[in-house]
Amino acid sequence: MAKTKQEEIREGLAKRRYYDGMIGIGSGIPQWEDRTEAEREHFRAKIDDDFNYLHSQGVVIKVDRELPKLKSLTGDASLKEKLAFLQGVEALREEVIKAGYEAVEPLIEEGG
Question: What's the burial of 107, exposed, middle or buried (CB within 10 Å: 0-12/13-18/19+)?
Fold first, then answer.
């Protein structure tokens, strides 16, 4: 199963914290992957504390996501009115992208 962006960041930071703690030990540092799951979870828990703080400060993650696709219009409007509406919506989508709006997700997902 694919990891979420949040899980990827958590794991990467836990590895960094592990290796940062090993500075000065020398070349005999056990690799992250060779540590037990309990040992790795210790470092992940430290990152969870950091995530909670950052989340409380409003930090979000930029994600790759396209704007929602337009749905077909129904109703009593004429074809010309429907096309004009769709062109207006498409122009708005382009302005949103040009203005630099980005798709974001919370650092800590609700229920997670």
Answer: buried
Q: Is residue 90 part of a domain?
A: yes
Residue 112 domain-assigned? no
Indicate whether 111 belongs to any domain.
no
Instruction: Output the CA–CA distances (angstroms, integers) from residue 35 to 25, 40, 50, in the order listed.
Output: 16, 6, 22
Ordered per-residue pLDDT tens for the chain, 112 residues: 778 888 999 999 999 998 888 776 766 788 889 999 999 999 999 999 999 999 999 999 988 776 666 666 667 778 787 788 778 888 887 888 888 888 888 988 876 4
Alpha helices in the chain (DSSP H): 5-21, 37-56, 79-98
pTM, two decimals, is 0.63
Provide the number of structural domains found in the chain: 1
Output b/e per residue, 10-26; b: 16+ Cβ within 10 A.
bbebbbebbeeeeeeee
| Residue at 27 is within a domain | yes
Expressed as residue numbers, the domain containing 52 is 5-106
